[in-house]
C-alpha cells in the first residue's frame, strides 16, 4: 500500500475529489496547509489577489491506496489539479506499512 500526498491549489479540491472518485478511490483526508515551492520571488494569483511568494494557502490531500492503484490515482490527481501555471503543487508517494479498519478489524488492502 502507498500513501499519495498531493499539495494542490485550494480551488482545485472539488475537481480532484471527483477525479479520484471516478477511479474508485473510496476515502481521503484533506487539510488546509500553507507552503511554498521553488518559485520564490515570483508572484502567484490566489482568488484574484497577487501574492509575493511567501506562505501560500494550499490544500493537502492524503489518500492511501493499494499499490496497483497508485499510477491511476496519481494520474487522476494531475489531470484535475493542473492549470499549467506556477504553484500547481506536488505529489509525494510513500510506503504504508499497515492499515486497520477500526469497525471491522480488516487489515491491509481490504481495509483501504
Ligand atoms: N520539497 C517540498 N517539500 C514539502 N512540501 C513542498 C515541497 N515543494 C513544494 N511543497 C509544497 O507544495 C506546494 C506547491 O508547490 P509549488 O507548486 O509551489 O512547487 P514548485 O516547485 O514551485 O512548482 P511550480 O514550478 O509549479 O511553481 C507548496 O506550497 C508546498 O506546500
TrEMBL record:
PROSITE patterns: PII_GLNB_CTER, PII_GLNB_DOM, PII_GLNB_UMP
GO biological process, one term: regulation of nitrogen utilization
Record's keyword annotation contains Phosphoprotein: yes
Recorded GO CC terms: cytosol
Keywords attached to this entry: Nucleotide-binding, Phosphoprotein, Transcription, Transcription regulation
GO MF, one annotated term: ATP binding
InterPro entries noted in UniProt: N-reg_PII, N-reg_PII-like_a/b, N-reg_PII/ATP_PRibTrfase_C, N-reg_PII_CS, N-reg_PII_urydylation_site
SMART domains: P-II
Residue numbers carrying O-UMP-tyrosine: 51
Similarity comment: Belongs to the P(II) protein family.
Quaternary context: Homotrimer.
Name used for this protein in its record: P-II family nitrogen regulator
Protein's organism: Massilia eburnea
Amino acid at each position: 500500500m502507498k500513501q499519495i500526498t498531493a499539495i494542490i491549489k485550494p480551488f482545485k479540491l472539488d475537481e480532484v475529489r471527483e477525479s479520484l472518485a471516478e477511479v474508485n478511490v473510496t476515502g481521503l483526508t484533506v487539510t488546509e496547509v500553507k507552503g511554498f515551492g521553488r518559485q520564490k520571488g515570483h508572484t502567484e494569483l490566489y482568488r484574484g489577489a497577487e501574492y509575493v511568494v511567501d506562505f501560500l494557502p494550499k490544500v493537502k490531500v492524503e489518500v492511501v491506496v493499494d499499490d496497483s492503484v497508485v499510477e491511476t490515482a496519481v494520474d487522476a490527481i494531475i489531470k484535475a489539479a493542473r492549470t499549467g501555471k506556477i504553484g500547481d503543487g506536488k505529489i509525494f508517494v510513500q510506503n504504508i506499512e499497515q492499515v486497520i479498519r477500526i469497525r471491522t478489524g480488516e487489515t491491509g488492502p481490504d481495509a483501504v
